[in-house]
Design brief:
The longest helix has 21 residues, at about 10-30. The protein has helices spanning about 10-30, 50-60, 105-115, and strands at about 5-10, 40-45, 65-75, 75-80, 90-100, 120-130, 135-140, 145-150, 155, 160-165. The chain has about 170 residues and is an alpha/beta fold.
Amino acid sequence: MALEPPRWEIAWTEFGDLCRRLAIDVDTLGRKLELSNNRFDAVVGIARGGAIVGTTLAFMLNYEYFPIRLAKRGGVVRVLVPPTRDLADKNVLLVDDLSRTGETFKIAMHELKRVGAQRITTAALVRREPGFRPDLAARVASAADKVVFPWGREVLVDGKFELRKL
């Protein structure tokens, strides 16, 4: 009988704690990099989960927020919502909820460079070890851990919330 991988279910309270930790790290890095006013110009969240983390960080840090949306179908990643040209010459914090292979980060970084972003710093709420290492991460999970974010735990079915089948 195969063993189930360890599950790390992040509750909303823990999500808030992880975002606060990441916001402090972002602020510290902005000062270290000696950015204009020691701040990034904008947060770009990779939709879907990165949009939740990115929007939260943008509010916490009082930054502008922009989305980017990618879709993977049949092993091919497409850009559904590209970054705006308003990010040209900006220092951008690119955010996702989970960093595994880095594929979405790499494609999003390419798209941000295409619109002229000046500096791109990557951040993930959780990163896998081993795996792609974003510049910042609030917590590290092993490759075997099954990470369940609070927004992915339940789904509304026929007017009632049910646990999502994972």
